[in-house]
């Protein structure tokens, strides 16, 4: 475990191994610990970096709700890479972590060696669909404010294992980071020019179609469907997930 003061907050992160840097970002309601197995599996040839986003895990939870957004998350990713001395990295993440990884690649292509997008989606062009997504994010925030951290315990395998410091921080993160504005990411897919691996569990039905869409829109992207895996494909089928990811990383 390590901590660094970046962009005005204390960010909790972990670094293991040596070689090309692989930055892994977690999903909403989870923490960097969802990548513990990848730290063990890939530290032989890669420098693996995982971290807790704002409002999550052991990273600070600012009291100001304006301190939570996808843009600030991207800025934190950039600051963390600079903090660990990485000029470029393979940028990867699951769910919300995958979405902000896409946003990072669009904002900082010069720092993006490759992309690994897991059980995620690129957002929406349709305003009504985006509003429905944001309504669910608002419901999560309201539930956390009403029930505290117990509101997360039964959501998914990745959130069941997570330990957080602040329910209010997670509520702010739902409204500011999980909720989406505009179609910048989905509109930018065709402009991505780095090697990209899209991974999705075959039982993660809400994200199968978005994963197929991303693999078609990003030039040369590979799509890997993990059998017997749900939304947390790296936790549900770690051996298959790690094999697929290792083959991709070795090809770079």
Low-confidence stretches: none
Overall outline? globular
Which value, in Å, is the CA radius of gyration? Answer: 16 Å
The tally of helices reads: 10
Q: Look at the helices and sheets and give the structural class.
A: alpha/beta
Average residue-wise pLDDT: 95
Head-to-tail CA distance between termini:
28 Å
DSSP E strands, number: 8
The largest sheet, given as strand count, sense and whether it forms a barrel, is:
8 strands, mixed
In which order are the strands of the major sheet placed?
1-2-4-3-5-6-7-8
Instruction: Give the percentage of residues in beta strands.
Output: 15-25%
H/E topology pattern: EEEHEHEHEHHHHEHEHH
Percentage of residues assigned to helices: 40-55%
Quaternary structure classification: single chain
Describe this structure in words.
The chain contains ten helices and eight strands. It has helices spanning 36-42, 70-83, 96-107, 127-147, 157-160, 167-178, 184-188, 205-217, 233-236, 238-251, and strands at 2-6, 9-16, 21-25, 47-51, 89-94, 112-118, 196-201, 222-226. The mean pLDDT is 95. Helix 3 (96-107) links the parallel strand 5 (89-94) and strand 6. It is α/β, with parallel strands linked by helices. The chain is 42% helix and 19% strand. The longest helix is centred in the middle third of the chain and has 21 residues, at 127-147. An eight-stranded mixed sheet has the order 1-2-4-3-5-6-7-8, sandwiched between helices. The radius of gyration is 16 Å and the shape is globular.
Q: Top keywords for this entry?
A:
single chain, 252 residues, alpha/beta, eight-stranded mixed β-sheet, 10 helices, 8 strands, 42% helix, globular
